[in-house]
Amino acid sequence: MTIYDWAQWVLLVISFFAEYLIIKKKVLGFYIWIGLCVGWFCIDFIAGLYGQSASWILYLIICLFGAKEWKYEDVECRTKDDVSTTPARRT
Questions:
Q1: What is the spatial distance between Cα 72 and Cα 91, in angstroms, rounded to a whole number?
Q2: Is residue 32 in some structural domain?
Q3: Rounded to two decimals, what is the model's pTM?
Q4: 91 inside domain
Q5: In angstroms, rounded to a whole number, what is the distance separating the alpha carbons of residues 27 and 25?
Q6: How far lies 4's CA from each of 18, 26, 63, 91, in Å?
Q7: DSSP 8-state code for residue 84
Q8: Is residue 29 part of a domain?
Q9: Rg of the chain over CA atoms, in angstroms?
Q10: Rounded to whole angstroms, how far apart are CA atoms 37 and 28?
């Protein structure tokens, strides 16, 4: 097994973990996916899968927006239950 094969397996396992965090509504999952998008982009680019590499750039952009939006919603959900804090600002 080459280092390239090992990298794919490591990224795959981390991908499942990041997805689990997102299911549990943890914004950390998006940040892990941001790193994974870069890793998968490199793996696919090295393999000559240029179309797949381009799709990882799009996924990266989606993850950046998702992390930003999720963070605002997470703060807003906490302020609904805790009336002593100021509600989150919507942009």
A1: 9
A2: yes
A3: 0.69
A4: no
A5: 6
A6: 21, 30, 24, 42
A7: T
A8: yes
A9: 17
A10: 14
Residue 90: inside a domain:
no
**How many CA atoms lie less than 13 Å away from 65 in the CB half-sphere?**
6
Degrees, nearest 5: CA angle 2-48-20: 65
Domain residues for the domain of 59 are 3-9+19-81
- Strands (DSSP E) contained in 1-91 are none
Helix axis angle, 28-46 relative to 3-23, nearest 10°? 150
Is 76 within 8 Å of 88 (Cβ atoms)?
yes
Average pLDDT by consecutive 10-residue portion of the chain (91 residues)?
88 94 89 94 92 94 86 56 54 56
In total, how many domains does the chain have? Answer: 1
